[in-house]
Structures are given as structure tokens and as C-alpha cells.
């Protein structure tokens, strides 16, 4: 099926999903160019969740839409690479707080710079005014939904 000829909204859905996938690819490429290798886009979604104040494996699992076991494996992998650390949770003695290390924060800054670069390319393609309107429209439609991989 050619989504560009479908007038019932499927074409729009395909275009949005393809655009989101391309944006994730460009961010990943920008992160690699900035010296952070051995990571996958999924790691970036975990970093986005953990960046503000850390979180638990259970919270990360819910954020990513995966099992607690899958989230724990992801945290193990990121910990082995030096991007996160586990420590005592300040409010829940049963839980462990997962926080970004300085390397994890540096990678997050690299991803933010790569995202700005990718968005800049979109802005050049459609113009700053249309880009601003597109951002506002998408933010309104997303209604604060989770930012997670579409697996």
C-alpha cells in the first residue's frame, strides 16, 4: 500500500511514524559523531526518563513499556558502560535509585545537541514559521504522552 495516496488518515500516521523514526536515527547518528558509541536509540529513551532526577527500574519499565526484567537488563548494560549508577532511594528503602553518571549526562547533552541539529534541518526544509507551528501542533496533539520507542 502506498501511504501517500491514502486519504483516510493512514497516510498521515505513516508520515508521522516515519518522521519520528528518521528523527531518532539522526539523533543517534549525531550522538555517535560526538563520540558516544555502543548505544542504541532505546538507551536514549532511558536517559530521557532518568535525566531529571533518576528513577527506579520499575518506573523505567513503565516509561519504556517493557517488563521490569527487560528494564533491569537495560540498566545493567548502561551501568556496565558507565552511564548510570544504582544507589539507595531517598524515599523508599525497598527501591534502588538509578541515576545518570557524568558520562550519562554528557551523552544526554550530546543527544540534545543532535536533536537541535536535526530539527534545524527540518526548519531549513519547511521554514522557521511552519516549523514553529508544526511543533506547537504536535505538542498539542501529543498531550504529554510518553516518549518511548515504538519497538
Explain what you see.
This protein has one domain (9-142): Orthogonal Bundle (Arc Repressor Mutant, subunit A), CATH 1.10.10.10. The mean pLDDT is 90. It contains 6 helices and 2 strands. Helices cover 63% and strands 7% of the residues. By secondary structure, the chain is mostly helical. Strands 1-2 form a two-stranded antiparallel ribbon. The chain has helices spanning 10-33, 41-50, 57-64, 68-80, 102-126, 128-142, and strands at 84-88, 96-100.
Oligomer: single chain
- Outline the low-pLDDT stretches: none
In which range does the helix fraction lie? 55-70%
Distance, first to last CA? 22 Å
As a whole number of angstroms, the C-alpha radius of gyration is 17 Å
Number of helices: 6
- Look at the structure and give the CATH class: Mainly Alpha
Strand order of the largest sheet: 1-2
Q: In a nutshell, what does this entry contain?
A:
InterPro entries: HTH_MarR-typ (IPR000835), MarR/SlyA-like (IPR039422), WH-like_DNA-bd_sf (IPR036388), WH_DNA-bd_sf (IPR036390). The protein has 151 residues and is mostly helical.
Question: How are the secondary structure elements laid out?
Answer:
Layout: H1 10-33, H2 41-50, H3 57-64, H4 68-80, E1 84-88, E2 96-100, H5 102-126, H6 128-142
Antiparallel strand pairs: 1-2
Amino acid at each position: 500500500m502506498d501511504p501517500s495516496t491514502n486519504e483516510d488518515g493512514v497516510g498521515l500516521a505513516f508520515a508521522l511514524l516515519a518522521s519520528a523514526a528518521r528523527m531518532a536515527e539522526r539523533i543517534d547518528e549525531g550522538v555517535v559523531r560526538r563520540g558516544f558509541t555502543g548505544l542504541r536509540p532505546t538507551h536514549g529513551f532511558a536517559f530521557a526518563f532518568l535525566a531529571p532526577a533518576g528513577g527506579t527500574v520499575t518506573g523505567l519499565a513503565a516509561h519504556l513499556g517493557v517488563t521490569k526484567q527487560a528494564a533491569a537488563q537495560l540498566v545493567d548494560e548502561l551501568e556496565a558502560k558507565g552511564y548510570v549508577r544504582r544507589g539507595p532511594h531517598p524515599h523508599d528503602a525497598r527501591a534502588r535509585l538509578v541515576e545518570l553518571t557524568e558520562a550519562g549526562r554528557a551523552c544526554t547533552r550530546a543527544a540534545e545537541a543532535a536533536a537541535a541539529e536535526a530539527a534545524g534541518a527540518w526548519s531549513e526544509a519547511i521554514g522557521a514559521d511552519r516549523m514553529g507551528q508544526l511543533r506547537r501542533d504536535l505538542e498539542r496533539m501529543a498531550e504529554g504522552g510518553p516518549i518511548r520507542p515504538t519497538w
